[in-house]
Structure to design on (152 residues):
């Protein structure tokens, strides 16, 4: 059970990174068909939903101090998971590219990230971790900035 979930979830996370790379490539070259964009978006958000909410139930835990999680970055597994979390949220920033107000996008990024973590904590599908909120926000903002650099 647990090892199969681990294999599937890692495969889907890597698939989402590949999918995100394709989206970025298509956006950079400006050769993205609307239907292809919709299909990739459906895949992206499906993988995100699975990775974030389709875990087996664990204990309800709320980690309010981000430094508790930062201390665990000495583990390669935690570093890799943090990198995947960051990479998984970069494409989300592209969806906000039409919003010209950087502060508004930052507020939305905080709200979305906080909501995801809160749902994970309340449903016991992960821990609520303020460090993850920060990583998700960073990923969204990186994607947002990249989308503006590409459009200039």
């Amino acid at each position: 059970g647990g090892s199969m979930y681990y294999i599937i979830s890692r495969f889907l996370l890597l698939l989402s990174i590949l999918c995100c790379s394709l989206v970025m490539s298509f956006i950079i070259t400006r050769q993205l068909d609307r239907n292809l964009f919709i299909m990739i978006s459906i895949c992206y958000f499906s993988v995100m939903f699975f990775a974030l909410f389709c875990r087996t139930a664990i204990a309800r835990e709320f980690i309010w101090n981000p430094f508790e999680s930062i201390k665990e970055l000495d583990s390669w597994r935690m570093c890799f998971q943090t990198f995947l979390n960051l990479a998984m949220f970069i494409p989300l920033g592209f969806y906000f590219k039409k919003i010209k107000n950087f502060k508004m996008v930052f507020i939305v990024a905080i709200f979305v990230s906080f909501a995801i973590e809160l749902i994970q904590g309340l449903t016991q599908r992960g821990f609520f971790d303020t460090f993850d909120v920060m990583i998700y926000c960073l990923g969204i903002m990186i994607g947002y900035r990249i989308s503006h650099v590409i459009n200039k």
Summary: The longest helix spans residues 2-29. The mean pLDDT is 82. The beta strands are 62-63, 128-129. The first strand starts at residue 62 and ends at 63.
